[in-house]
Amino acid sequence: MGTFIFHVDVSKFQGQEYYDRYNLKDEATPSDTYEAANDQASEKDWRGWAGFVFEPPFWDSILADLTFDGTELVEFKIHLATLGFGSPRTQRGRPVRASHEDSIRILEHVSEYSAVYGTEIEIDEDVGIVQI
After folding, report:
1. For a Cys-Cys bond, which of 44, 93, 113, 124 suits 6, CB 3.0-4.6 Å?
2. Domain of 47, in residue numbers
3. pTM of the model
C-alpha cells in the first residue's frame, strides 16, 4: 500500500548511535546522518545515491477505497499519493495527491505487478478500479 515515513530527515533528533556510526559531531543534524550514510555506502546507483530512500518507487503510495455488498468486497478503488521524491527536505515526506502523470505511472507499475496474480486494474483518469 505504501508508506508515510519519509519525513525523518527533518526531525530534530536521531538516536545517538546513528551519529556515532558516521562519526558526526554533536552539532550534526538528522539530515547530516542521511548524507553521511549515502556518502559512505559501498553500492550506489547511477546517480550516486544509495538506499531505498533514494529510489523513486518508495516515495509513491496508494490508498484503497473499499466497496462492500454486505460483508462481501465487490470493488476497490486505488487513489494515488506521492511523498515528494526529489523535493527539498522541508517538503519531502508529506503525502499529497499524485499528479495525473504520477497517477498513471504508479497505476501502470501496480498493474504490472498485480497481473501475475490475475488482478486487472482498470484506469479511470487518476484512479485505479478493481472489480472483484
Report:
1. 93
2. 8-52
3. 0.69
